[in-house]
Here is the input.
Amino acid sequence: MLALRRMPSHITDSIFLKDLYGTDEMRAIFNDESLLQRWLDVEAALAQAEAEIGVIPRWAAEEIARKAKAALIDTAWMKREIDHTLHPIVPLIRALKSICDGDAGEYIHWGATTQDIMDTALVLQIKDAIAIFEQRLSRLEATLAELAQRHRETIMPGRTHGQHALPITFGFKVAIWLDEFRRHAARMRECKPRVLVGQFGGAVGTLAGVGEHGFEIRRRMMAHLKLGVPTITWHVAHDRFAEFAGIIAMMAASCGKIAREVIALQKSEVMELEEPWAEGKVGSSTMPHKRNPMLCEAVVALARLCFDRARTALDGLIPEHERDWAVNHMEWAYLPELCVMADGALALTLRVLDGLHVYPERMRANLDAMQGLMMSEAVMFALGQAVGRQTAHDVVYACAMRAVETQRSFREVLAGDPLVRAHLSADDLDRLLDPTRYIGLAREMVDQVCRTDAD
Here is the structure.
């Protein structure tokens, strides 16, 4: 029982289920050791910046930097002190001071406030997370581009409102996904100058504790951390985190859209796509025949969980006065969860796409299932050249509804209509009812999207 009590209690860290909710790479960025090190990195950078302009002794800054290592900190002692003080950074300062030689520890945290350290540490973690997200996006782009090109000609039913509409190619569908993820990649690049900005303002953000040296300390501190310099303290301006949360929630949503589409097209009566399957994968504990889309369902769940965290980020835009600690408490919780789960969605989506089964023969069979009705628009426009578009619509509509109600082929009903027969020959109907002839510029659009990638 003692061992069980030490087990993780959150799904993203679950020994059993964690790999359906995130990756070890992203978890490592937000674990306690990483968080502690980032707090220490910020304290060390502050001390170095202040020493460079003579606010604190250089020897003190050097000693602080030498000892600002997570491995040197007594984390069990820190935990007890945090429980006692209800404060995360004061115990850190005391722990670091206790291992610094001489009086160096007296110069830790000079002119700073707790939120300066914790906000900047969180930005550093986000910076590391963005590097992982960008790697995932790059891989997704490459995978989607290859899939779109491979299926440039693979014809399938296009569906609107859940019904067969007009023929498309599977490559066309994938190219739309690709274009969407390119925009996410652009958003990620473009947000970095706004999001990756450090924090140093002191008690209420005015830098009163360091006076006229404040701007220069802040500039040097951020240079050490390789972060942007704010134009003004942002203790109560959390739009940076909200923007970042929105972008990665959108990325997760796009993963959810792909997964939802695979689930829909993997239905037994459709079976045009299927997520990766290998011997030993079990769909049901009671129905041995099932090949359920378990990976895709996990992606959809992650996307929906990410939405909730993004909504929480928006709550952080309404703090009170010059400090509102409740907002920070929310950020410590939702940002790590959001990053881990969004990365989990991206990683699982890559796994699905890398092993996706595409069944062109089922796509073609489903195209023909409606006995030509999918081609009503092509017939309408051809007939409309002779009788006008509106008249043609009414005539073709009547034929289509008659075909549905009598369960006859669309071609048979069209051939029996006097107005259609007067203007469209049997060869015309054969040509117009061929779905391979009516995919518009789907192939060219795939080429355009993939060519943009090459450019």
In short: The radius of gyration is 30 Å.
